[in-house]
């Protein structure tokens, strides 16, 4: 089971697809710029801000799982 989770984690880390996280209005304003540097920066910032809640929820879920596993092991 651990190896399965490990392999799935590796796949999720190394095989990602690029995403565009801009809303329609931001995209329209930023596409008019030459070079698209600002648009790429804004897009990366949005993606990083979206990742933080998922990491926090994952960490809380992990701690809940770990505590439940400890209590079930001590009851056995």
Structure notes:
- The chain has 76 residues and is mainly alpha-helical.
- The protein has one domain.
- Helix content is 79%, strand content 0%.
List the main descriptive attributes of the protein structure presented here.
0% strand, 76 residues, mainly alpha, elongated
Provide a short characterization of the protein structure:
It contains 3 helices and no strands. It is mostly helical.
Classify the helix fraction into a percent range. over 70%
Count of individual beta strands:
0
Apparent shape: elongated
Mean pLDDT: 82
Q: Nearest-angstrom radius of gyration?
A: 19 Å
Q: Ranges with pLDDT <50 over ≥5 residues? A: none
Query: Strand content of the residues, in percent?
Result: under 5%
Write the layout of secondary structure elements.
Blueprint (H helix, E strand, L loop, with lengths): L1 H13 L9 H8 L5 H39 L1
